[in-house]
Write a sequence for this structure.
């Protein structure tokens, strides 16, 4: 089941389950469209992958399978992933 995280890991903007500007990578790292475009350059700082729009879970399914309430925020700040 896809984890619907409640916020942008970069700027901490609220991203409710119905947010159309929520983007995720293959590991479900969640960022807002503004941070992905203006700070991250379309590359996940955690895994180096790309982003896709986060699906919107239908209301009936959201009741049965609620979104996560655990906020994730990059304590070290948010920027492009550095080469290893």
């Amino acid at each position: 089941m896809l984890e619907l995280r409640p916020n942008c890991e970069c700027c901490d903007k609220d991203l409710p389950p119905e947010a159309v500007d929520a983007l995720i990578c293959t590991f479900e790292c969640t960022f807002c469209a503004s941070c992905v475009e203006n700070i991250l350059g379309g590359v996940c700082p955690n895994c180096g992958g790309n982003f896709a729009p986060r699906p919107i879970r239908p209301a009936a399914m959201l009741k049965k399978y609620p979104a996560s309430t655990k906020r994730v925020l990059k304590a070290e700040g948010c920027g492009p992933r550095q080469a290893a």
